[in-house]
Amino acid sequence: MLTGVLASAGLFVYALLQRRSFDPWEMFAMTVAGSMTTLGVAGWMIGRRDDALERRNEDLRALSERLQGLSATDALSGIANRRTFDERLAVEVARANRYGAPLSLVMIDLDHFKELNDTFGHPAGDEVLKRVAVLIDREKRLGDVVARYGGEEFAAILPHTEPRSAMIWAERVRLLIAGTEVRSEAGALNVTASFGVAGAAPDRAEPAGLIEEADQALYEAKRLGRNRVVGAGQGSRRTYAV
Known about the structure:
The protein is an alpha+beta fold.
């Protein structure tokens, strides 16, 4: 309607300036031409606006996905971070308590890492952390969670896994780390790791308690000489030693 009014008004002004009488066919033609021009311009402008909005929405979605990934991933190692670990452990412990499914936790600490940093520098230490993270993450199964717990310490949540099986998994990873040469600007480096394994108590497990048991087993592995797997359970500990 607005288009028709504008076209008619334009024709009326034109007729007054030219001192001409109104021709119905000329008015009709002018109205049609004005309507088509106006609608075409309006459609073009609306299309450009919609394209701009779509590009903006795509950018916002990409940014949101990136931020979500960053919030769940450790920036250096590229695996899950401590926040993701805490969230998943709480979920898996709740599931284990509800359904009585086995659940094991493995804590991993690199041996003599401070000395490595002091001797070869932090860039070399960073290369070691990244390489070890790749090795551990490569050994996880679907549903397992491998995370950087903090500093040179890593953790693995193994749902539906008995402690005995978790210790076998940890021993395989220990041998893999010990047998890997890490390339860095300081040269080829070798590193070992100590492991502590704990299983969730049926129907009454708590995340903090499970972490504490795995940590105590890890400390025992350090005390016994490092580069070994120690399992905690029912007051006794079983070890794999080099």
